[in-house]
Amino acid sequence: MKTQSNDNSSSTPMNDRIAKVVSEFIVSFQAKLAASIGQRFNAYSAGKQKVLLVSVVAIITVILLAGLFTNSYTIPALHQSYKPATHIGMASDVNLSGRRDAQLTDSLTKK
User: Fold this and answer.
1) What are the entry keywords (predicted)?
2) 41 is in which domain, residue-wise?
């Protein structure tokens, strides 16, 4: 049975065309969005533009400062039932839940 290989050399031109189309779409969307936002912003008077800029900067500052004081990721605690993975040199019948340390051995030494 022949399996499919991961040779991407034949699909490279198609991938390049797809990437070109997607990148042109993204760039054109960004240009249209920037033009729209610029047109709306320029419609305001100079005083309103200053108020808008100060309020946007204040909101961004509050969000960034709030991010400093919130704990968004906690490291999970290990529970009592935690058992480490069996090491390569560890016998498979070793009782890992016991209180004594497991004796690590390999196939060349006997203890």
Assistant:
1) Membrane, Transmembrane, Transmembrane helix
2) 12-69
> Could you tell me if residue 25 is inside a domain?
yes
52 occurs within a structural domain: yes
**Residue range 5-61, pLDDT digits in tens:** 555 555 788 899 999 999 999 999 999 999 999 999 999 999 999 999 999 999 999
Neighbouring CB atoms inside 10 A of 33's CB total 10
DSSP 41-94: HHTS-HHHHHHHHHHHHHHHHHHHHHHHH-----PPPPPTT--PPPPTTS-TT-
Residue at 3 is within a domain: no
CA distance 53 to 47: 10
